[in-house]
# Entry
Amino acid sequence: MSDIKKIETFLYDEADLLDNPDLDSWMNLFSEDGTYWMPVKEDQEDALNHVSIFYDDRVMMEVRRRNFVHPRAASKDHKVRSSHIISNVRTAGNNDKGDLIVTSNFQALVFYRNEQRAFGGKYVHHLISEGDSYKIRHKKVTLINCDAPQKSLTVYL
# Structure
């Protein structure tokens, strides 16, 4: 399998885990030092010196996962359905840590509490080779409308 095909398959598998949603398996895609970031501005330089929609490390991902699956969580009152479409997958070299940088476009439809919402934007994944697959060291999701007011996000994009 070519490298780009292997990367695409990895990203499609990640999207499938988010669509199910299987947050336990999804979190296992991340390295122990993995982070997940959604900036509030299109050209935001970093997550630590600026406000973000969210910036989660593994601990925060675990907190969100527990809240999502807790039997008394409000999210349990209504099923969450989503569909992620990923396209234009490109490699952009390696960073100074040796991570493979992958960019892609995405669209996601989320249906929750009788409301359908559409999201679109760009993903940037920092991937670490692990055996025949990858681990995510960092994932950045830049929404097309990141600087617009956002309702609460029920699931990860």
